[in-house]
Amino acid sequence: MKLINNEYPDENTTCKSHGKYTAKIAYLGEHKITSTCPECSREENKKQADQKKDELAAKRRQIQIDFLEDANIIKRYWDMTLDDYKPREFQKNAHEKCLNFASRFDEMCSKGQCVIFCGGVGTGKTMLLSALIQSLRVGYYIRAVDISRNVRHAYSSNESELDVIEELANQRLLVIDEVGLQQNTKAEALLITDLIDRRYGNMVATILITNLDEEGVKESFGPRAFSRMMQKGAIISIDGESQR
Q: What share of the chain is helix, strand, coil (3-state, %, to 5)?
């Protein structure tokens, strides 16, 4: 095996890109080895470091996208946490409630708490609750009508209605949007009530988003179901002008 002999004096040489520099000289047998231009070395090291940084950023971004897709967050509200949410005056109370919910999330789950966010169209409810899920890095968002659609789809697939409900019943945080819309049927209200009951038993937290006021929610679900929902629950109103 040939050994490298580096007992040779330095030499002045020229780099095509950076001009003259002093090179270290060594020989491997009769083969002369000249050290690389230090500026070229710095550029190559920076290039490799930048490449690793970009690869890491891309990996982190993909992890974030996977989470957002798994959580079913509307794309319009991607990359928004409670810290990013800038509440208007009429939204400040709801924002503070969400911050408190996030700080006490384990406790809220242990109670099987159900929280209802009420407010008119365009008052920022969906955006706020999407930000809550992203701040917690846990949770699932779904519209009430899509729960019914998923159940109906189960009839024509290998899943059962119970499979669909149980999957939702075991999410640590479930946000159900568009509750109590005019097109929501009585069957949908019963389905959601059953789901909330299961989640209460599983000691996981549920949040409902609706354009109805408290009386409207009570009418939609019925007094008995509403009373059960409020046993460990709360209603938070967001009253203000539409921001759309």
A: 50, 20, 30
